[in-house]
Amino acid sequence: MEMIVCIKQVPGTNKVEVDPVTGVLKRDGIDSKMNPYDLFALETALKIKEEKGGSVKVLSMGPPQSKEVIREAYMMGADEGMLLSDRKFAGADVLATSYTISQGVRKYGKYDLIICGKQTTDGDTAQVGPEMAEYLDIPHIANVTDIVEIKEKSIVIKMDMSNSMQVVEVKYPCLITVEKDIFEPRLPSYRRKLETENKEIEVIGLKDFEDKDEKKYGLNGSPTQVERIFPPSHDKKQEVWEGNSEDISNKMTDKLKELKFV
Ligand SMILES: Cc1cc2nc3c(=O)[nH]c(=O)nc-3n(C[C@H](O)[C@H](O)[C@H](O)COP(=O)(O)OP(=O)(O)OC[C@H]3O[C@@H](n4cnc5c(N)ncnc54)[C@H](O)[C@@H]3O)c2cc1C
Prior knowledge:
By secondary structure, the protein is of the alpha/beta class. The protein has a single domain (2-221), classed as HUPs (Rossmann fold). Helix content is 27%, strand content 23%. The strands form two sheets. It has a nine-stranded mixed sheet with strand order 9-8-7-10-6-1-4-5-11, sandwiched between helices. The chain has a two-stranded antiparallel ribbon with strand order 2-3. Strand 4, helix 2 and strand 5 form a beta-alpha-beta unit. The radius of gyration is 23 Å and the shape is globular. The protein starts with a strand and ends with a helix. The structure holds flavin-adenine dinucleotide. Flavin-adenine dinucleotide binds at residues 6-8, 23-25, 35, 37-38, 41, 59-62, 91-94, 97, 101, 116-117, 119-120, 122-129, 224, 226.
């Protein structure tokens, strides 16, 4: 089974500044980590490989420092890693990100299964996996909570439909996005750290893609414009009432009438 796992480096803190002019997150110089949801995606692939053989490749799109998450994936057991990094990819919204990663997948060549995390802890849209599948013209299943059976030409999985569970069989090649807790992610191993510290990480950019049309990448390829980013304001007024229960219930009745709720 040839698998590709998409992993993203995200801020390790929620104190991230936004460039007031471009609306782009200022990611330089801040603490980063692997998107926690992607640990579950990687663990799923490693479990499948242990059972059925094959290989696990990881793919990340981001600045050069994203190599760190690929190194971490190597320490957990990934066989190969590729970083999609190019200034022309900067400022991508979900559409441009999905297109860029789908081009990276094409660069990898043959695969049976792509596994993504359910969502990220920064962008948080949960759309990249399904959009990539559309660009690659392959079926996808989101919110996968369990792998029921791995067959030669298909995989049977359980998906969470929020008010019901569905068991679905899907043919390869396909893409799944997995829920957290599908499997408990293993810790990076010190032995593998030593074995893989000089392991190559291929870094590719726009010039290496099949589609080199600059209009489809980064800010150029992003139809969504961030107009303003701000913390939600809390403008609710609070009143504290004192007195016995009769006084308070009378005040409550008056207030409800004043607000025209009764
Ligand atoms: C309206 C809007 C505007 C935005 N504008 C900007 C902006 O101006 N500047 C900016 O920096 N960001 C911006 N973002 C955030 C950026 O677009 C997202 O971080 C990016 O598109 C990935 O989406 P996501 O984080 O929501 O991923 P999700 O869809 O939540 O991720 C699902 C899964 O897809 C995979 N995945 C996602 N991203 C990557 C990646 N980079 N590499 C590998 N795998 C990945 C992972 O497996 C992940 O678990 C914007 C987002 C939105 C919604």
